[in-house]
Each structure stands twice: as C-alpha cells, then as structure tokens.
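Run folding on both entries below.
>entry_1
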Amino acid sequence: MANWIQQLMDGLGYVGIALLMLAETVFPPIPSEVIMPLAGMQAGRGSLSLAGVIAAGTAGAMAGNVFWYAVARRVGVDRLHGFIDRHGRWLTLDWSDVDRGRHLFSRGGSLFVCFGRMVPTVRSIVSVPAGLLAMPFPRFFAWSLAGTLGWTALLAGAGASLGARHDAVSRVIGPFSLAIIVAIAVWYAWRVATWRKTHRGE
C-alpha cells in the first residue's frame, strides 16, 4: 500500500497528493495519517517542497470537504431521515445519532468544523452536519480550511523530519498503513453486527 502511494506521488507529484487526499475525504480508503507523512518525507528528501506538499494536501482535502457539504446541503434533513431509516444498519447509525450530532453542532458548530478536521473518522463526516444545518458557506470554508491546513501541515512536517531516514521509515509505514485499513474494516464490521436502532425519530 505504501509503495503504491509512493509511486503515485513520484509520478504525479503535487497532483497525486491532492488526488489522494481528495479520495481520502470523499471515501476514505487510505488515511491521511499515511498519505501526508509519506508526502512530507518526499519533501524531506528534496524531491518536493514542504510548502507545496502542504498546499496540495490541503487543496485535495478541501475539495472533498466542499463536495460533502454541497451534497448534505442539497439533501436536507427531511430526505436524510428517510434514508437513514432504510439504510441505518449499513451506515451504523439511526436518527437518535443524528439528533445528538445536531445538538452538539448547534452548540459549537464552528469549533466542531475546525477541530473535527483533526480527528480520525470524524474528519471525513464533519461537512455533513454543516451542510444539513445550512451553516453559511464562507464560515464553513474558513473553519474547515483552518483545521485542514493545520492537520496536513502537522502530518507533512512530521514526515519531512524523517525524510533522511526514508528507507527505515518505509519499512514501518507499509505494515502500519495496512494495520490502519484492517482496523477500520474490523471496526465497521463490528458496528454493523452490533447495530441496534434505539428509536425511530419523529
């Protein structure tokens, strides 16, 4: 997995980084915790600039963030309710989960959007409540950008600091990236197997 990511970055450079981060945000097959450190390592070895890596990663992630915001804004709460009632098991949530999320979002939406970008699994779904609850787009974009930029810079900076030890780190990141993907798959399977609808929202 790590070798494939590395080859894509070698072939497409900053565009490859942006595409990987876009894919991670829209449908997270590869976590940013693997993508951005590898990109940062490229910068640490001198083949890419650190500023360019951070900008590309942020741009790709923000494209995904805006995509989910637009989808959620278009769907709206009413249509989402029926969809969750029909497909809640595979989404591993019911309407009570949505109500809790709406309550939390109404109390601290801007901070949730900003800091949620730095939390694994939450990062990819932050745009949904923002869109459903019609958070003003300029505010959504600004807070999303702040959190996304901070997260990508942190991960890329960590990778750049290890760039000189690329071979040793690569031997660790390969199994680590596979372990993350397996853990996500196991977590999802467990959620589906143990899912129970707590109540039907009105």
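>entry_2
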Amino acid sequence: MRRFAAGVCLVTTDGAAGRRGVTVTSSCSVSADPPTLLVCLNMSSPLNERFEANGCFALNVLSAENQKLARAFAGEGGLDADARFAMDDWSTVETGAPILNSASAAFDCRLIETKIVATHRIIIGEVVGIAKEIGTTSLIYLDRNWHSL
C-alpha cells in the first residue's frame, strides 16, 4: 500500500465526545449530489470513536506548507491533542468541527453513516459547508515520504 500515492488530509471533529484530529490518506469523494465524502479511520485508537459520537467531521485538505502539522497529527513527536491544535489557527463553519484556516480546502460534514471494514471504520458525511485557501500546493504521501505537487 505504500506505493499508493495519496493526498494528505486532517480529519477533525469536536462536540460532546471531545475534540479529535487525525492525519489521513484514505479519503475521497463519494457523490457530487448531494456532496458526500468518506474517510477511513483505524480502529486501533479508541479516540477515533469520537467522530461517530460527535456526529460530524471536517476534512481539511493539506498543502505542502502543512507538512509539520500533518506529521504532528500523525503522532510524530508525541504531542497531546491540545499541543497539536495549538500549532495552527482553526475556525468552524456549521457543524462545529475544527476547520484549518491554512488548509487548501476544508469540507464540513454531517455524519450520515459508518461501516466497519477489516481494521478500519469508514465514516461517510454529507458536506454542509466549505472553506478554502487559494493558490497552495498539495501534500502527497508516497513510499513513506512526504511530497508536494
């Protein structure tokens, strides 16, 4: 799977179950009408249950300039959630999920379905809000290395 080049995103949530953010490379568009996205989350972390419990998530598309943040939210450096979120500026659109202000694009989603497949929980959300930053490069992960496009 390391040969499968993928865009790098931060998926975030906040609500009654608590705030959570994770770097992911397994996300994609499901439908344009209504706009729907999916994200795959490893079930090895019980903290990822917060996405389902909160009923919302934001998919923040990262630029090459966000590599340090991507590494932190992937667990490098062992920072706790507060320290990770303190590394950049955040806002909200509609659901209350954290939107990264410096993201290339951010999709605010209402969770509509989840499904467990092998080691991952697939969360599917309908896009209810969008925020974007114009003119940035994309962050890609391939062969266990970070690249820009």
